[in-house]
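Dear Dr. K.,

Following up on our conversation at the group meeting, I've run the structure prediction for MlaD family protein from Xanthocytophaga agilis. I'm pasting the input sequence below exactly as I used it, so you can double-check it against your construct before we proceed with anything downstream. Let me know if the numbering doesn't match what you have in your notebook.
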Amino acid sequence: MAVSKEIRIGILALVSGVVLYFGFNYLKGSDLFSNKEYYYAIYPNAEGLNVSNPITINGVQVGQVAGKTLLQNHGNHVLITLDIEKEVKLNDSTVAIVASTGLLGGKEIKLLIGKGGRPLDEGDTLISQTEVDMLGKLADEAKPLSRDLDTALNNLNVLLKQFQQISKPLGGTLQNLENTSSALNGILAQNQAAIKGILTNLNAMSSALNDPQTGVKPLMAKLNATGDSLSRIQLGQTVDKANASLANISKLLNEINQGQGSLGKLAKNDSLYNNLNRFSANLDSLMVDFREHPKRYVHFSVFGKKDKTKK
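The predicted structure tokens came back this morning:
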């Protein structure tokens, strides 16, 4: 039975379409003969994330990005289709994190599977997060460093201005020091002989002072010996005088105790003490009578006549 031309054309078109479909998906990186499941994740921004980007768990690729869809009715968020191997078991605590693969800006989706949780079915939506890329991290970390660098540069500029202000006086001071040093060198050169003579005299004086016979040490020894002798002589004389004084005092006290001498009689004989008391009493009476009758004791007349007192 002959096949008509139309049937041959239809079969050719069908085969071409199948080949085109399989070829297009192969070029996208889709494995048409693998057993995979599709999940979804929604991100506010999917810049840099493209179809066929890898999906990994702990650095092992378990799938790839299968599609990107703009959700205009949901704030222009992006719906990402994840083509994941069927053997990978996900649960409702799994997080799909968009992360950078290097400095060149490549993207991937890292799956972080939590412990426990309800197993997911194909077509469920994962929890989504976006990891700050490496360049963003470097930029964020560089911001405080940039501020510190700006502050350091400003301080350096201020320091340089201050240094410029003091550089001229400092230059003058250094020039004065150089001139002073030159003048001192000239003075030393002119008086080199005199300085040498002074040093020689000092050395001779030092030698004389250190001489064991006429130097300082024997002189100090003699002075110490003389001082010790004087101290012993003075101390001996002082002790002798003190002993003599103590002996006299002891002798005087013994005489008083024995009733000898005036002090002894006064201390031992009551009659002398009583006589002194009576004498003192009579003297008091005489002074009282003198104050009351002075004419009895003093006779005085302007004309030289005696004033006779009637008895």
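Two things stood out to me. Helices lie at 5-27, 134-190, 192-209, 216-258, 261-268, 270-292. Strands lie at 36-43, 54-57, 60-71, 77-85, 95-100, 107-112, 127-130.

Best regards,
J.T.
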